[in-house]
Amino acid sequence: MQWQVTFQVFRYKQDGSSPRFDTFQLDVRPDEYVLDAVERIWASHDRSLVFRHACHHAGCGACGMLVNGREKLTCKTRIEQVASPGSTVKLEPMRNFPVISDLAVDMGAFYAKIEGTGSNPIRPGDPLIDCETNQPVPSPVPTTRFADCIECGLCVSACPTSGTDPQSLGPATLHAVFRRAVEEANGLNAETKKSLFDMADSEQGIWRCHAAFECLEACPSNVNPAAAIMELRRRVLAGKLGLLGRS
Amino acid sequence: MDQLQTNTFTGNRGKILRDWFNPLRGGLGLIAFVLNRVTGIGLVVYLALHLVVLSRLFQGEAGWNNFITLARSPLFLMLDVILMAGMLIHGLNGVRVALVGMGLGVKGHKATFVVLMLIAAAVLAYAAFRVFTA
């Protein structure tokens, strides 16, 4: 089964020309992914289209963009989820990031903020489970896994506070602070822990959040930055009131 | 970075503001955020107007009585109801923000918002009735 779908694609080049939307009509299968359509536009219609992509399995976070105005990781968004036969799909770069060209945004400052937390994207793995007994089995070597956050930036794009104030740390960075200061607190020295909570408790940290919870709605990787921010708030507040240590 | 345009932090404040009011853009949380901002700005404007109005006291009894006559007009009473709507929405939404900020009701923040806004609507309906009939 093939659907004819019109794609309205945001175009912008740093040559002084005004941003515009280009229209491409494609015959697509409904179970294809939006990223497949973007790649086909690039391959068959316009080789100058700039977009970010890499792994194609929701692991790298490179292909985030606005699909019909909502933040989507396009490699895991099927066309049937955002379109119907004969409909139009609008593709734009993420909000709250500088646009480099077309659908590609500059993630440099975003990555630098996350790196500034010192959070390690590689975490201790979950225990291996014996599929017959459903019990944990000892692993011959320590297991590891990647953190759930794939640093796609969709939470920052969705966050109205990040749109209002570019200096705010934003959901992903605050979640990284939470990961390191709370979830991975064992082994952290007191000075590092204090600096992480000071980062969270700063003017651009947890108190800039206005509890819109859009980061939670946008996250394609089951991370809950909003809950992390609220937990940091609770701990900072309790620490200030002397009700709880910051550990 | 100065050359980069559209959706940027610095380049398109108008689009950022318009996006706040785009119903397709976000969920219930964004509506709560926008309501809080709009009512917050409205209450600040009201405070300024309130102080201006109070300054009529400097014009003596006649000036103040003239204002009271105006304040009892249906249009002014409607503005009172709008003011109460702003106070209720901002105050009760603020309760939600305070609760989730203390780690309470984070998972149920949408339900909390809906319940608080229903309370706001009920109180507002009663208050509006009293304003126009008392």
Radius of gyration of chain A: 21 Å
CATH superfamily of the largest domain in chain A: Alpha-helical ferredoxin
Please report which band the strand proportion of chain A falls in: under 5%, 5-15%, 15-25%, 25-35%, 35-45% or over 45%: 15-25%
Radius of gyration of chain B: 20 Å
Q: Summarize the helix and strand pattern of chain B as letters.
A: HHHHH
If you average the pLDDT of chain B, what whole number results? 85
Which structural class do you get from the secondary structure elements of chain B? mainly alpha
The CATH class of the largest domain in chain A is identified as Mainly Alpha
Number of strands of chain B: 0
How are the strands of the largest sheet of chain A arranged? 2-1-5-3-4
In brief, what are we looking at here?
Chain A is an alpha+beta fold and 247 residues long. Helix content of chain A is 32%, strand content 19%.
Would you give an account of this structure?
The complex is a heterodimer of chains A (247) and B (134). Chain A is α+β, with helices and mostly antiparallel strands and 247 residues long. Helices cover 32% and strands 19% of the residues of chain A. Chain A is built from nine helices and eleven strands. Chain B is mostly helical. In chain B, helix 2 (28-54) crosses helix 4 (74-101) and helix 4 (74-101) runs antiparallel to helix 5 (109-133). At the A-B interface, helix 5, helix 8 and helix 9 of A face helix 1, helix 2 and helix 4 of B.
